[in-house]
């Protein structure tokens, strides 16, 4: 598969459409894919629900508390593929600061933002679509994407220096705290699988990390479109900082889409496709999507924590038995992520392409 050099069509910033009277055709989903924002129609109404909450303070308690924390993690990963963490160690000031500086970025005059326009080659910079399929129906969102780790691929030319030099230091500090948190979660996930603590650390090798700041402008007809189409995250795990005041994230639970109620101060963690492969589907990545609304914009900051680009990822020997043969082929993350980059968000179809038979 070749990386596309350019977008197949001229890029339109969704932000410039926020005050339109109607959603342009390019963003209108077929009826079966539209969110059901009006309960009482034929489709099952989306519920609102609390994701399981994991209190990481439990890790520094006694043996019983540690065990209860592991059980909570294992239950959440099996039942939801998602959980919210509290007492995660990331400072409130940094979380609020990130929301603030990145909101300011999206408020800059368009010409200043355009200086950071991205291409499908690396996706780094200011973007308005995922996937390079010509004529694809697009999502109601703009974003800013940055590589953070390994440091050798950090490219400060792609980082905005505006609105304030603060934004760079803030994003760096946030990235460092999030890497620390992911180090803890890696251990917890490994132990919660009944494996030794270092299992995911070894499997990931020198990890990669990147950041996508998602900006969902308000939308004149939110029932016709989505901020982000159903997808599972291709990488290892994701930690999401959401807008506390504006809901939008929905997680698939059976046939329903559950609207996440963010807990102030919490971060949302979810399992990505690489952990599904490594655990031979003991833990699965779960589909999620974003709905938009007519009243207000929404900002979220997704921190993607991934295996090293060049290490082969395959079901771990510890989790493969004669009764449970390996479900997936061996592939590097570099090879795998091309699927997302070419095809865009497409439910859980990407992992289906790497099934072993
Ligand atoms: C993502 C994602 C959810 C959100 O960036 O992969 O699922 O609420 N974001 O923005
Ligand atoms: Ni996602």
Main traits of this protein?
single chain, 357 residues, alpha+beta, binds N-oxalylglycine, binds nickel (II) ion
SSE topology sketch:
Elements lengths: L46 E3 L3 E3 L7 H17 L2 E5 L5 H16 L2 H5 L10 E3 L14 E8 L16 H27 L6 H6 L3 E9 L11 E4 L5 E5 L7 E5 L2 E5 L6 E5 L1 H6 L9 E3 L7 E9 L5 E2 L17 E2 H11 L5 H4 L5
Bound molecules: N-oxalylglycine and nickel (II) ion.
N-oxalylglycine (OGA) binds next to strand 6, strand 12 and strand 13.
Query: For the CA atoms, what is the radius of gyration?
Result: 20 Å
Low-confidence stretches: 40-46
SSE pattern: EEHEHHEEHHEEEEEEHEEEEHH
Largest sheet entry: 8 strands, mixed
**Average pLDDT across residues?**
91
- Tell me the distance between the termini: 21 Å
Write down the overall geometry. Answer: globular
- The spatial strand order of the largest sheet comes to 2-3-11-8-13-6-5-4
Bound molecules: N-oxalylglycine, nickel (II) ion
Q: Roughly how much helix do the residues carry, as a percent range?
A: 25-40%
């Amino acid at each position: 598969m070749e990386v596309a050099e350019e977008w197949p069509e001229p890029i339109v910033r969704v932000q410039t459409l926020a005050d339109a009277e109607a959603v342009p055709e390019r963003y209108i989903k077929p009826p079966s894919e539209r969110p059901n924002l009006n309960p009482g129609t034929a489709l099952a109404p989306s519920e609102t629900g609390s994701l399981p909450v994991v209190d990481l303070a439990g890790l520094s308690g006694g043996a019983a508390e540690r065990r209860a924390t592991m059980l909570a993690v294992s239950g959440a990963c099996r039942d939801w593929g998602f959980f919210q963490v509290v007492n995660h160690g990331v400072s409130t000031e940094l979380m609020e600061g990130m929301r603030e500086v990145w909101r300011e970025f999206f408020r800059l005059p368009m010409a200043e933002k355009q200086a950071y326009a991205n291409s499908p080659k690396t996706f780094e910079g200011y973007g308005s679509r995922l996937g390079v399929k010509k004529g694809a129906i697009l999502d109601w969102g703009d974003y800013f994407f940055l590589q953070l780790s390994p440091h050798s691929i950090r490219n400060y030319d792609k980082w905005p220096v505006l609105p304030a030099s603060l934004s760079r230091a803030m994003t760096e500090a946030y990235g460092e705290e999030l890497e620390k948190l992911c180090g803890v979660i890696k251990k917890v996930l490994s132990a919660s699988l009944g494996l030794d603590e270092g299992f995911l650390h070894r499997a990931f090798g020198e990890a990669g990390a990147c950041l996508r700041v998602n900006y969902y402008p308000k939308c004149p007809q939110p029932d016709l479109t989505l901020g982000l189409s159903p997808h599972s995250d291709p990488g290892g795990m994701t930690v999401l900082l959401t807008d506390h005041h504006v809901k939008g994230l929905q997680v698939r639970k059976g046939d329903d889409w559950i609207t996440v109620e963010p807990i102030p101060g919490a971060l949302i963690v979810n399992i990505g496709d690489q952990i599904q492969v490594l655990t031979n589907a003991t833990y699965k990545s779960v589909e999620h999507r974003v709905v938009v609304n007519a009243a207000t914009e929404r900002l979220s900051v997704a921190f993607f924590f991934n295996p090293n680009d060049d290490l082969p990822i395959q079901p771990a020997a510890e989790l493969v038995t004669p009764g449970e043969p390996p479900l997936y082929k061996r592939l590097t993350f570099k090879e795998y992520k091309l699927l997302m980059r070419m095809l865009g968000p497409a439910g859980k179809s990407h992992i289906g392409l790497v099934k072993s038979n």
